[in-house]
Structure formats: C-alpha cells, structure tokens
Amino acid sequence: MEIVSQEAILELQALMNSVDEPLNRTFQLLFPNWDCAHRFWKSLGRCRFLSVPYLQTRKNVHQGFRAETLVRFLKAREWNVAKAHKMLVECLHWRVQNNIDEIFTKPIVPTELYRAVRDSQLIGMSGYSREGLPVFAIGVGLSTLDKASVHYYVQSHIQINEYRDRVILPSASNKHGRPITTCIKVLDMTGLKLSALSQIKLMTIITTIDDLNYPEKTNTYYVVNAPYIFSACWKVVKPLLQERTRKKIQVLPGCGRDELLKIMDFKSLPHFCRKEGSGSSRHSENENCYSLDHPFHQQLYNYIKQQSLITKPAQPIKQGSFHVDLPEPAAEGTEITKSLESELQKIDKGNWLSKSISGIKTDDD
User: Could you tell me which residue ranges the CRAL-TRIO domain spans (predicted)?
Assistant: First the structure.
C-alpha cells in the first residue's frame, strides 16, 4: 500500500500558494462549488444519481478536496514534489489557456448532433459501488468515433470529466461524509475489431488529456467481454505500463457480472454486465447508460444547457465545438500507440494469410 507523505503534501501546498492569480483562480475551481451544484439539483427535484443531503459546508468540502487533489498529482509523479508541482502548474496553464472553467457554457447543439456523439462515443454512468464510488461504463469495442469532428469528442469527454469532478464526486462525498475523489470504470470490449486501428489517434489524445490534467481519478479499471484481439494487444501493452497503472487493471471473465456484484449492487451494473453473454446489446434506453435518454445523460445535458443560460442568458446557444488544444502524447503513450499499431497490423496480416491459404485449391480438390 502506498504511504501518504504529509511532508510532501505540505511542501507542494506551500509551492502552490505562490502561483499567479489566474492559475490560483482555476486551482480553486478544481475544488467543486457544491453550493451551486446543490441548488441546481434541488431545483430539479429528487433524482437517482444526485439526491443527497447537504451535509457539509462548501469550506469543508474544499479543504478535503484540496489535500486529495495534491495527493493525486503527487501519486502521478511518484511523490516527487518538484515534478508534481510542475505537472500541476502545467495543468492549471492548460485550464486557463483553453478556458476549461467555462466549458459548461458551450453545449453541443443541436440535440441531434449531441445524440450522434453519444451513440458513437459510448460512455455513461450506471450507478455507484457500495463504497460510494461512481461507476462509469465505456464501450471501447463498439465506439466508432465517426459521427462528429475530433473537437466535439474531446469537448464531450472533458465536459463529462468536469461534471464528474464538480457535481458527481462532491455529491458522493457529502452523502458519505468523506472525500470521494475517484471512480470505477468498466471497459466493455465487445465488438473490438482491427478497425480500432483507425481510432487509436483520437483515443490517444483523450488518454493524454486525462493523464496530464485528470490524474489518478480512476480507482480500478475492470475489463469485460474481452475477445482474442484484446488478449493479444494486452500482452504487448501490459509491460509498457507503469506498475501503478497495471495494478489498477483487472481483466474479468465473461461479462464480469459475478465479480462486479462483489463491489456493487445489481442496479448499478452496466447493462452489458447484467447477463452472461449479453455483451453491449441495446437494452431499453433507461438501462443503456450510453444513451442520451438515460437519466445520467439527461441530467448532464440539462446541467450544461442551464449553465450556458446562466452565463449568457440573453444570447442564443451557438453551434460549433469548444476548441481545446490537442496535446502531444508523452513518450510512454507514443510507445504504447506504436506497439498497439504494430500488433494490430500483425493480426491483420495473419488473418489475411489465413484467408489466402484457406482459399488455395490443391490438386486433390
């Protein structure tokens, strides 16, 4: 188990106390504004995901999350204070330069476009673990990422990240009376094919954004419905991952239902984990947490639209994506991407050779 160094936390805090005002302002926004979120959800009435009592003052939530935020960046840099400070300051610069604090002022419109994004970038929240951690489901195998521009997919991903950090996690923290700063992710590999090679670039961009600006937000990754192609790629990628990351990844047999039921109730299972062999088949829209019609996405989209009206009440919502500078992948990410591309190409060549040989007629035919 990793030992938390109070000395390192205090040293990093001292360094952060001296950052310039624009960076300090966005640093404060890394701690959720619970008052605002609470008023919004109270106005909507009770809902499954966020119907929790207002147990702590905003100040208490900020104090708890401040320490947790520093710890996340320290963990991401192996408790090296200087490297953690550099990473955190660069993250704050990224937020200021890309206006991330205002990302909720720009909904993806029209609704039909947002629905297309949701149908091709499969992610949703299915519930909570018994420890109170949000459970996010990601359809890795069936996400096509081909219905909108790269910027729309990046915008949507960051909006979900920010909604998780500013609304979902503070809500869970208040409900349980302790800081909850991480989530669980269930990765569904149903439908993973060689065509995934064309999506690696965008997936690498999104992963790099998370690694640099939202580090240590996932407690555990559970991989389910893994086909052969995943197993082949996992053998190549696993040795390239940092030990800290490898320990977070668990590949479960089948749809993972039995193992996941040890940490969450049935109602919180993603739809593709509820029946053995069910895969990511399209269940009713209320069960399918990927769908825009699912309560989580309805609440998220309504929240973004309401925030845009609060900020610019007299202006109509304009079409167009919220542009974010796309990062260059780190050395580790580049190596992983190249290894994945190489392995997928090998599999593709192997399949082509197999088909060619099976199509050759012998003299005995």
Answer: 110-270
Find out whether 205 and 213 touch, Cβ atoms under 8 Å: no
Q: How far apart are CA 72 and CA 180, in angstroms?
A: 12
| pTM, 2 dp | 0.84
Is 296 in contact with 124 (CB distance < 8 Å)?
yes
What are the Cα distances from residue 206, in Å, to 12, 38, 278, 362? 27, 29, 28, 50
pLDDT digit string, tens, across residues 176-218: 998 999 999 999 999 998 777 778 889 999 999 999 999 999 9
Whole-number Å distance between alpha carbons of 124 and 117: 12
Q: Tell me the two tokens of residue 226.
A: 């893994």
Question: Helix 169-176 and helix 34-44: axis angle, to 10°?
Answer: 90
pLDDT tens by residue, 298-352:
999 999 999 998 876 656 666 777 889 888 877 676 788 888 778 877 887 766 4
Q: Give the gyration radius of the chain's Cα atoms.
A: 22
Taking a C-beta distance cutoff of 8 angstroms, is the pair 333, 204 a contact? Answer: yes
Round to whole Å and give the CA distance between 29 and 132.
23
